[in-house]
Amino acid sequence: xxxxxxxxxxxxxxxxxxxxxxxxxxxxxxxxxxxxxxxxxxxxxxxxxxxxxxxxxxxxxxxxxxxxxxxxxxxxxxxxxxxxxxxxxxxxxxxxxxxxxxxxxxxxxxxxxxxxxxxxxxxxxxxxxxxxxxxxxxxxxxxxxxxxxxxxxxxxxxxxxxxxxxxxxxxxxxxxxxxxxxxxxxxxxxxxxxxxxxxxxxxxxxxxxxxxxxxxxxxxxxxxxxxxxxxxxxxxxxxxxxxxxxxxxxxxxxxxxxxxxxxxxxxxxxxxxxxxxxxxxxxxxxxxxxxxxxxxxxxxxxxxxxxxxxxxxxxxxxxxxxxxxxxxxxxxxxxxxxxxxxxxxxxxxxxxxxxxxxxxxxxxxxxxxxxxxxxxxxxxxxxxxxxxxxxxxxxxxxxxxxxxxxxxxxxxxxxxxxxxxxxxxxxxxxxxxxxxxxxxxxxxxxxxxxxxxxxxxxxxxxxxxxxxxxxxxxxxxxxxxxxxxxxxxxxxxxxxxxxxxxxxxxxxxxxxxxxxxxxxxxxxxxxxxxxxxxxxxxxxxxxxxxxxxxxxxxxxxxxxxxxxxxxxxxxxxxxxxxxxxxxxxxxxxxxxxxxxxxxxxxxxxxxxxxxxxxxxxxxxxxxxxxxxxxxxxxxxxxxxxxxxxxxxxxxxxxxxxxxxxxxxxx
Length: 666
Hints:
Blueprint lengths: L2 E8 L2 E8 L4 E10 L2 E10 L4 E7 L2 E7 L22 E4 L4 H6 L15 H21 L6 H10 L5 H12 L13 H7 L2 H15 L3 H4 L1 H13 L3 H10 L5 H17 L3 H20 L6 H14 L2 H13 L6 H13 L3 H10 L5 H13 L3 H13 L6 H14 L2 H9 L1 H5 L5 H13 L3 H10 L6 H14 L2 H14 L4 H13 L3 H13 L8 E6 L2 E6 L8 H17 L15 H9 L2 H12 L6 E5 L5 H13 L4 E4 L4 E5 L2 E2 L6
Parallel strand pairs: 10-11
Antiparallel strand pairs: 1-2, 2-3, 3-4, 4-7, 5-6, 8-9, 8-10, 11-12, 12-13
């Protein structure tokens, strides 16, 4: 469920709607002006369908909320109708007529129950304070924006509706002397909830002009904070680029905005782009001699973990230690995630063990790191330790524990935790937990149990669950079950390129080559492009990226020569390419050549040329590694006596001495 905010404007009057998609709920913040009578109200309405519209009639501006049946729920034209107060109304005016109106009986044309409650009394009290502030303002001849801002900043109102109502009273009236300036909006941003703050920020940029943030650092920082908090990276970047000599809070706000966008993205290319942007900003920041703090460090090491930039991450950690930055549990959690994401789970454990006062999130980070590296027993020991010290367990904790069991083949232990989720931990399984259990059973070859769980799930299965079953059916030769899962996957996500590749590979494993080719042809006919495979390798702190058949690298001639050498040496050890990963209508020999130029092969070849002999090779791949490249990496680790740590889309592979930590199931 996410929120959709919109701003309805008419001159200086505005209404801000906040709809919660998926829950049939609408919040509407309305600033109404009837000549000199101004108030704000938050409406929260539960309806299946909401339509918002606005219109003007004379000096009155209002917003209507109309239900599916056309019933008018809010009628702003007749301002004298009676509100059913719920403690979130504030009225203000020169004579406070609305407070006087509360004491009158409802008009006969409106039969609405008036809540004579503490909420009403509180509203009248706030109204009297509004009148007092209004009286202070009107005693100034002429009233000034400075005084109005001072009243706004020092007002006793704590409710967002109160702050907005006072803003409307001071600045949306008819006085030509009172116009908002750069000092008006920051207090409002702090008082308002995110959707309202976002709408006000957008309104302020239009009202004050796009260059206002560049001339006032406080306003610029406030706008950055609002746009960053709401994930509006484009607006955030525009504001930042207009600030002259941005200070540390401005840099942190922009980097944190990219970090939020990275965490929310499901695209590998998008998350890498955001991580790149953070590191680029960090470099610019240091070049301008702006000293980072703990907030900066969290954003930077998070980007390093996403990219697998171990060298950058170690440098940032070392910088923090030398500058005596506080490594609190938030920073420690970020460092644990970074080291685990860069393939150094041993360093992640060192940071974790050295930290104090660890909370659930930090334990979850360490558990996840152990899980994706295949350290199942260590993860279970850490979970027991977590429970022993009384750290609360949540759904993410149990998901990490079950994933650790799945990757390590600890099926019985994983199933036990799944069965006691609700009884012992009072946690209801979500789709991610079901998916993990299906994956765990599928890895172990218990496909009948996996299918039974899918049929009996309390939640409708998603595409990830069907993908796990299809992949396992290909490995274990279950054609009938696999085809049923293929039909379900096509029904759920017919346009996903990865699904078409998975289906084609499934049929290839079953020696159903015509069906495999048909799946690829369907993909082409629908205009679906396969996600391009890419691999990153870190050499002395510099990230080098390779695509399939990439010849753009300055050392491409040497790289391709090394690829040929590797293939020759692997063939001497009996390696033959598994060409089922290549489904083009070409000869087997040509398929083998195509496999040799996969992005991870090029990255390994370059690392053998450019890295220190004997040093581990660390590769980050955006897609799942194919069968042939997996076998090739195993042999390279044996023939060249090099450890290869490869992170693909689902887990880490540690290749040592011709073996892989995944046990050849991934």
